[in-house]
Amino acid sequence: SALFAPIDNLGVIVIDEEHEDTYISGTAPKYNTVEVAIKMAYMSGGKVILGSATPSLNTYHMAMTGRIELIEMNKRVKEAQMPEIEIINMADELDKGNNSIISEVLYESIRKSLKQKEQVILFLNKRGYSGFVSCKKCGYTVRCSRCDVSMTYHLVGNIMKCHYCGSAKRMPGKCPRCGSDKIEQFSAGTQHVEKLINNLFPHARIERMDLDSMTDTEAYENIYNDFKNKKIDILIGTQMLAKGFDFPNVTTVGVLSADALLNLPFYNASEKTFQLITQVSGRAGRGDKIGRVYIQTYEPENFIIKAAKNNDYDLFLRQELKLRKEFAFPPFINIINICLISKNEEELVKTAHEKYLEVKEAVKEMVKERSLLLYRPVPHNIYKLNNEYRINLYIKVSNNRLADLKKIIRTVYMEKDIENIKVSININTDTI
Ligand SMILES: [Zn+2]
Ligand SMILES: [Zn+2]
Q: Considering just the CA atoms, what is the radius of gyration of the chain in Å?
């Protein structure tokens, strides 16, 4: 928000770690700091510098298409040693009879670190989005064939649903790829992991850092300081951990489930996974000691996992852009999300459908000229939250028709009063 400070002669705006979701303001007034900065610099004649070791695909694409200039720094600031990254196939663990979320190799590494009075960070994705279904034998996940995103399990009807286009599949009883019956909904919360680690390492001082245990910044700072002062041996937490932590005494970092990231039901799940693994890995071996990083997964062959292991941004970029183009996602097209929220479920369902029909009528021409794709209303992944129900509508639209669509959305959803229903509109921002 410093961006809005009244400065007369704005020369340069520097945005560090430009790929971070925190630059996107999700509450009104909604804005993307990077976009606003570029616009402001354009108006004032200044310059914008976007910095990142893992630039967002959107930003990189702007550079590729010549809209911004690319400056590469191929040398690390301090000649710090890159940590050793090992990928662990969790299906092998299952074969060995290890049913837990901690692989043998990771267990040994934690033990070694603790013995040498060094520290450990275990990373787990935040709760609430564990609705995907995967095979514990071969890593197969149920994905939408139209959108290539993980489908989410819905208890009602025992079905899998695509978050974007609404396609549904029956929950498979057996893995369609390998026939195993070990196909199930993924779940592992930080609380569960904390208990498990407590049992495995009863003498270690363990702390958990997630949205549940972090009610205020003071709690966050306390844990931060305790960890820094080596009063905590093992820190378990969510993506908060990836940011700005620089502890030379950390020698083991474990990403407990890369799959929980990869299978977030968003089009940019792969990109977020790549960035997170890269950032989390950077937490290990910041000092003289060499760090060990373990990435646990049922999909060791996934190109994102491989690219992250080898720090291969180009591989990630090439593959991901190809997929985005093939399945029509940003930066090749705009994706608009209109979320209707209400305490009254019946009214919500009715209104969502009526509004959908209004939009459908208004965009008929654009659909015909193939510059717009309108999906049907779908229940939000977390359909009921804080006693309110939520229904999503997704629209894909090309750049040259975006302004026209915005006008239509304004007329349908904002000019006419919709009683007792909140409207939340997001453009190209499915954040995790
Ligand atoms: Zn399988
Ligand atoms: Zn779909």
A: 23
